[in-house]
Design brief:
alpha/beta; six-stranded mixed β-sheet; 45 helices; 49% helix; disordered N terminus
């Protein structure tokens, strides 16, 4: 037996000589295939041994795997050849290229961050190990290279190096190059870098980036239209797309919307296949795929790999990574690159792989999947008792390859070795068939004459394709009604004239800000993400994309702006005399042109940076300057910013509207006499704001046209020369005392009841507007405690839906849709689920996006342990439990790496999958429901995970898991019961594992002796949608489903009926599952603070954004003047100081709340739940210090620095009013952000200097912008003629009270210096502050009252946010 890593392991050859080969075999079996039951040792040893041999394996021996030798046919259900009807295989190949990787070494990204004493990170002084070290490999055209290895071995990094997308990873040594094969003419032979090969490489990433509004067929058609040579006709593209759909099994969903966060579309597996299809339709010379089979069932995965293998035989170079390949795929690969922690264990022909390890006395038995075996021996088993031994073995294998690996390959002539392996096949026979008006034979004839080296389609065609695939975003026009009510029926008196003057400018920034926010959302989340991806593939130039973007947006922006303008114009009672048509036309035109201009500004900001914190700061800062130089709120801007009016759409828009509304217009002003009468002459109003009377408004409209044209051109230049997008890589964060708390002598034991789960007659239906789809149909099964039940089935069989129903999870059906269920889910020993059952059930979701990206793996587990484990346990024992689970799931190697997010390359996908599982295993739940626990894991880790689940079940827990591609040892040692679902949610099997063989035999499909049973039953129940196989395979599946129904009915008749009321099982009581505030609050505070501090750009943005706003105001206004423009300047100054603060609060909230919200909602649904009050209080306490410090700094600048009237009372009232607005914005963000989709606004940690914004919900920015805009309109300064009912409603807002506090403190006692001529001409609006307050209609000047009400309202808004979150939690 293994020594548990206590003593060093001697070299393999010494062990073999000293103890004999039999001892070596047994030792390796115990090391790599640990058993739970010693009684199974003999059987497992015969099935999973590493057999030494004195001779090098023959090719036939090397191919013997699961009974499928190289000279034997594939299993009955698997296609052995695609040449008979696969049209894609028959297409003439593109130019062939050979890949060469030479001594490639890739380092880790540099690490640099600030430190605070209370959040100090202890960085290790040791030199970080390179991610990839001295990797050499090759793959010629006509070959398929498989890159395999454990999680974190560097597979994805090598792929990124091949395609030239390493982002911030430094290449320390070596190179990646491509050169044409011998089939190209000699003059064309040259070595190309990855960047020069962009248009010849098809790259399938791990993440699926697709347009949500397109169907599957449309997505593939547009991909083909952009990627294929221009000579290929639409008919040919249709044929390629149709064959791709059929080959990937997407025909049933070909006309289904892809969907996304707010719209249910295709499944995750179907999205994965669609991403692969987008690369396949381009017919690339080199196809690179990162884990293309992850998320696919075993049958679909094998079919896909078979297609890729056949494509490789047609002079293509195929490189891919794999995690859990089935045994039948081994002969499909020509070359293998085996990695372990970034080092090469083997790199060469597949036929020489097993002989190489045989020369090291390591040989698999004939019943072992060689791919699983290769991954097993090259992976460090990070379980504590196995780690030292396996690490020593891996080091020996790496050293052996470095010392004599190349010599071994050179011993045998390469040509002889690969004579039968690398044969480029001749064009296979094409089946007759018609698609559209072109037959396959005709199209093949066209393609055979196509010059594949031609460039892709040009600008005109690119523009056409981009236009046809783009759908313009939704644009809200509700602001028209809102502003119409705020300025409803303005009277013709000085107050109404002042409001009309304000409206002439303010309608633009308030309406266009909505467009600005929405455009940034669109560019950050979808538009520029897809643009970056497709530009990396060299699909089109920037020019056609810009033209398509502009023309597509033009109709919707024009229509929405026109409706907005018309609504405001007639609700407000703007000019209606003989110049009505002319004035209305001017108003509509300037709204449309301003909309187009701000979209261009948003594109410029997003082109400079995809970072939300940076882009929003750029846009908001520039917007403030543009508003201030618009010509209303500041009549004499400083000379150093006055030039900005020429790039401000508000300057041109305001002047064109003001001229059209006031020039040569006399207002009635009934009853108005004296100096105030001067404001009733429109020409004097224009003179008062320094607008010349002799300029035609068309001049300003022409300037707007030029402005948006130049802005689009600037954005195009930036997009063409600057590329800020892409995935970044996180540096390691070393923590002090790592793993020390694990040394606790007593093990952690948690008392749990045994719970049997039962499902009876369960059906699930999705419906929307008269359309319905069955997800599950009459599912009945039992999940006994103490056992592992595996749910198997192809993609779309309803596995995840069944798990969610068992776990009691809420399912999002999408807008205007719903899920309905029939039957019963009976948890707790045949009884209905009691209240609080979630405390006994843990659900490991398929997605791993809920983790905080700026925490390390160890920190994530420790916080989970403190929250989830009983409060009676000490903190030391809780942390020990976290370390125990960390070791159990092999996460110690990445324990101090950042988790990462969407655009941060932190831990690998497999490691993140294990982290999600570890978090739920912390509390050792009574029922553990796991959705695809092995997806994204390497073979050894997947096996260890299933053994861990088996051990959990053995302690009396109920374990239910869905599995896509279970390897044979998982079937034999990790599964007790099997539920097999067919597509459409029908049951095909539900029985103990031991009964699968007899039942399949009774169906007429007996299990072969040397085949993985899991692969066999998945193949048996899968529908092959290619060619003429679909009808037969569908009939087979329906026959199996019918046979099971008959078998189940027979079994029910033979068994006596059970009475649930007399069940001997104990009743189960659920708890509330919530951690008390005294336990949870300190943990949540520490976690939030650490996550915020690690996101330093967001941390500093929250601190400096408010003072920055004040500095900008000071730059614009300098010291407030006491001359004739002093009254108008103060109106603008107060409005521009007060109105943005709520938006700033929302922006601060957007930066951090989504990540905290997602993990809170996840923990509420699991055993780590805590109250909404705890969450809101922790969030408030974390934000409060930054808010207070920020508003104090801002008040120093804006109150004292700007020369406002001040003393101690005025200063602190000013700062308090700013804080109240900032806090209100945060509260609004909490309310709206909680009820949008869980993948709404989200800021992912990228590196210590950048954060990327991932939006997926346009509803959130639209609603928040609309809501805050309503509050601003009612503050009492924008419009002084607000309707009474709206004015009364405004008293419930913090904006109205804050504005009054600041304005009253500034105006009481204020004296301005105006000459009689300035008063008579209207240039001097008021002479005292009291007159200004009277103009606003304010009579109560007691600020203390407003301060008290403001404090109460601020607290009330936060309590409302808490109530909103609590309501949301209740619906989870």
């Amino acid at each position: 037996m293994s020594n548990g890593g206590k003593t060093p392991v001697p070299p393999l050859s010494i062990v073999s000589a000293a103890f004999g080969r039999g001892h070596l075999r047994q030792s390796l079996v115990e090391t790599l295939c640990p058993l739970n039951d010693p009684a199974d040792s003999a059987k497992s040893a015969s099935e999973h041994t590493y057999r030494p041999s004195d001779a090098v394996l023959s090719d036939k021996q090397a191919f013997e795997l699961d009974g499928i030798a190289s000279n034997q046919p594939a299993p009955t259900f698997l296609p052995s050849d695609l040449n008979d009807d696969n049209y894609m295989i028959s297409l003439p190949p593109p130019p062939p290229y050979n890949l060469q990787i030479q001594q490639l070494t890739i380092g880790v990204p540099p690490s640099a961050s600030l430190s605070l004493p209370f959040l100090k990170s202890h960085h290790s002084a040791e030199q970080p190990r390179p991610i990839v070290r001295n990797v050499s490999a090759s793959c010629a055209s006509g070959e398929m290279l498989a890159i395999i290895g454990g999680s974190g071995s560097g597979k994805t990094t090598v792929l990124n190096a091949i395609v030239g997308r390493l982002a911030n990873l430094p290449v320390e040594n070596g190179s990646v190059s491509f050169c044409p094969s011998n089939q190209l003419s000699a003059p064309d032979r040259k070595t190309l870098t990855s960047r020069k090969m962009k248009d010849k490489i098809g790259f399938v990433k791990q993440q699926d980036t697709l347009l949500e509004h397109l169907t599957v067929r449309e997505t593939l058609f547009y991909a083909a239209a952009l990627r294929l040579p221009s000579e290929i006709s639409n008919q040919t593209r249709d044929l390629i797309v149709a064959q791709t759909i059929q080959e990937l099994g997407l025909r049933d969903v070909a006309d289904t919307i892809v969907g996304g966060a707010l719209r249910k579309g295709i499944s995750g597996g179907e999205r994965r296949r669609l991403s692969i299809g987008c690369a396949l339709v381009s017919m690339p010379s080199v196809l690179v795929a990162d884990e293309p089979t992850t998320g696919l069932d075993a049958f679909t995965a094998y079919s896909l790999l078979l297609t890729l293998s056949q494509l490789a035989r047609r002079n293509r170079t195929v490189i891919l990574t794999l995690h859990q390949p089935r045994s039948a795929t081994f002969p499909l690969f020509d070359r293998i690159l085996l990695l372990s922690k970034g080092s090469v264990v083997y790199s060469g022909p597949r036929s020489r792989c097993l002989p190489w390890f045989a020369s090291l006395d390591l040989v698999p038995s004939s019943r072992v999947n060689p791919l699983d075996w290769l991954i097993d021996i090259s992976t460090i088993d990070t379980r504590l008792e196995k780690e030292d031994e396996s690490r020593h073995r891996v080091n020996l294998l790496v050293d052996s390859w470095e010392q004599r690996g190349q010599d071994f390959l050179a011993d045998r002539d390469a040509a002889e070795d690969e004579e039968d392996e690398r044969t480029v096949s001749s064009p296979p026979r094409i089946q007759s068939g018609i698609i559209g008006n072109a037959s396959a034979v005709e199209v093949a004839s066209i393609l055979s004459q196509t010059n594949w080296d031609l460039k892709r389609i040009g600008w005109p065609k690119q523009t056409t394709v981009l236009l046809s695939r783009h759908v313009s975003p939704w644009q809200s026009i509700i602001l028209g009604g809102i502003m119409g009510f705020a300025f409803f029926r303005l009277p013709e008196n000085p107050s109404g004239i002042q409001s009309l003057k304000t409206l002439s400018l303010q309608h633009l920034p308030y309406y266009t800000y909505l467009t600005l926010i929405y455009s940034i959302y669109r560019f950050c989340t979808t538009t520029l993400v897809i643009f970056d991806r497709e530009r990396e593939d060299n699909l089109y130039a920037v020019g056609p994309w810009l033209v398509g973007e502009f023309i597509t947006n033009l109709p919707v922006l024009s229509i929405s702006a026109t409706l907005f303008a018309i609504i405001i114009y007639f609700m407000v009672n703007m000019r209606s005399d003989h110049a009505l048509g002319w004035a209305l036309g001017i108003f509509i035109a300037e709204n449309i042109l301003a909309q187009l201009t701000v979209v261009a500004f948003a594109l410029i900001a997003s082109s400079i940076s995809r970072i939300y914190a940076t882009a929003s700061t750029i846009v908001n800062s520039i917007q403030i300057f543009m508003i201030m130089t618009g010509g209303l709120f500041l009549l004499h801007p400083p000379v150093y910013i006055n030039w900005m009016r020429f790039i401000s759409p508000y300057y041109y828009g305001y002047r064109s509207v003001a001229i059209s509304q006031f020039r040569d217009r006399l207002f009635s002003c009934d009853g108005v006499t004296g100096i105030a009468r001067n404001q009733c002459d429109g020409n004097q109003v224009l003179q008062g704001v320094l607008i010349p009377l002799d300029i035609n408004p068309g001049y300003y409209l022409s300037a707007l046209c030029g402005l948006f044209t130049v802005s689009y051109a600037i954005a195009g230049v930036i997009l063409a020369v600057y590329h800020p997008g892409g995935v970044k890589h996180a540096a390691q964060i070393a923590t002090s005392g790592r793993g020390k708390e694990a040394m606790v002598p007593d093990s952690v034991e948690i008392a749990r009841q045994r719970i049997d789960v039962e499902v009876r007659g369960l059906s699930l239906t999705w419906s929307r507007r008269g359309t319905s789809k069955s997800i599950l149909r009459d599912i009945s099964s039992r999940f006994p405690s103490g056992e592992v039940t595996a749910i198997l089935g192809p993609s779309g069989a309803g596995k995840s839906s069944l798990l969610q129903l068992i776990a009691g999870r809420h399912m999002n059906a999408g807008p205007f849709a719903k899920f309905s269920t029939d039957g019963a889910v009976l948890l707790f020993n045949g009884k209905s689920r009691p209240k609080g059952f979630r405390s006994l059930v843990s659900f490991v979701e398929q997605e791993d996006s809920h983790h905080l990206p700026a925490l390390t793996v160890r920190e994530t587990l420790r916080y989970a342990a403190i929250l989830r484990l009983p409060k009676t346990m000490s903190r030391k024992r809780k942390i020990a439990r976290a370390e125990e689970v960390l070791q159990m799931l092999g996460l110690n190697e990445c324990a101090d790496n950042l988790v990462g997010g969407e655009l941060l390359k932190g831990i690998s996908g497999g490691e993140k999958r294990r982290l999600s599982l570890a978090v739920e295993m912390i509390s050792d739940p009574a029922v553990l429901v796991v959705d695809e626990p092995t997806s994204g894991l390497d073979a050894l880790t997947a096996h260890n995970v299933m053994l861990a689940l088996k051990a959990i079940a053995a302690s009396g827990r109920t374990v239910i898991a869905s599995i896509h591609q279970p390897r044979s040892d998982i079937w034999h040692s990790g599964i007790d019961n099997v539920i097999l679902l067919a597509k459409g949610g029908r049951t095909a099997l539900s029985c103990p594992k031991s009964e699968v063989g007899p039942i399949c035999a009774s169906f007429g499909y007996p299990l072969p002796e040397m085949v993985n049973p899991a692969d066999w039953i998945l193949d048996m129940i899968s529908i092959d949608s290619r060619g003429n196989r679909e009808e037969a395979s569908r009939a087979r599946v329906m026959g199996i489903v019918a046979a099971w129904q008959e078998h189940e009915a027979k079994m029910q008749l033979e068994q006596p009926a059970s009475d649930d009321n007399d069940t001997p099982n104990e009743a189960v009581l659920g708890g509330d599952g919530k951690a008390p505030m005294v336990v949870a609050l300190p943990v949540i505070l520490e976690r939030m603070a650490k996550n915020l501090w690690r996101q330093q750009p967001v941390f500093w943005m929250r601190l400096y954004q408010t003072p920055l706003l004040g500095c900008i105001m000071l730059l614009i206004y300098q010291r407030l003047r006491y001359g004739p423009t002093g009254g108008q300047d103060r109106l603008g100054y107060v409005l521009e100081i007060i109105s943005p603060l709520a938006f700033v609060g929302v922006l601060n909230n957007i930066a951090v709340y989504p990540a905290d919200r997602d993990i809170f909602f996840h923990e509420v649904r699991s055993s780590a739940g805590y109250s909404a009050a705890t969450f809101v209080l922790a969030f408030t306490l974390v934000e409060l210090p930054l808010e207070i410090l920020g508003v104090l700094l801002c008040a120093v600048v804006t109150n004292i620095g700007a020369g406002m009237q001040t003393n101690a009372r005025i200063f602190f009232e000013f700062a308090f009013a700013e804080w109240a607005l900032l806090s209100t914005g945060e509260s609004i963000g909490l309310m709206f952000g909680s009820f949008t989709n869980s993948m709404g606004f989200n800021v992912s940690y990228v590196r210590p200097s950048s954060y990327y914004c991932i939006f997926s919900n346009p509803l959130f920015p639209s609603l928040v912008s609309t809501f805050i805009t309503i509050l601003v309109q009612m503050c009492g300064v924008v419009s002084v003629s607000i309707p009474t009912w709206l004015n009364d409603l405004a008293w419930s807002t913090t904006l109205k009270h804050s504005t009054r506090i600041v304005m009253i403190n500034e105006c009481v006692g204020l004296r301005l210096h105006c000459t009689p001529d300035q008063v008579a001409s209207g240039e001097c609006l008021v002479q005292t502050g009291e007159e200004l307050l009277a103009l606003l209609g304010w009579k109560d000047w007691q600020t203390k009252r407003y301060v008290g009400i403001l404090f109460a309202l601020t607290v009330a808004y936060r309590l409302l946010a808490w109530l909103t979150i609590r309501t949301k939690v209740a619906s989870l």
